[in-house]
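Kindly inspect the following:
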Amino acid sequence: MGGQRAPARESPIELPKKSRNPSRQALYTSLPCDIVVERIPQHRHCNECGKAIISTEKYCSDECRQKRDTRLKQRKRQLLLLYFGSFVAFVILVVISFVRF
């Protein structure tokens, strides 16, 4: 019961060189030898929604491209406000430290 493991299959499915991770190898060796694993066609994922696309584009649609542009503009604005706020706080602290003495 406790520590006994089932013996590995005699002819494991050969993994591509990129996937020679021992934990993944164990997954493939536990499959019956007569199962054929279907290969997924070469594809990318949309940078915004994650949908699989079979093209060289980074986005699946113009809508995703616009969403990403809007989000990047908001992020830039937030970073600029953060930098500006930090600079103003630093200047105020320096001025206060000199005024006390």
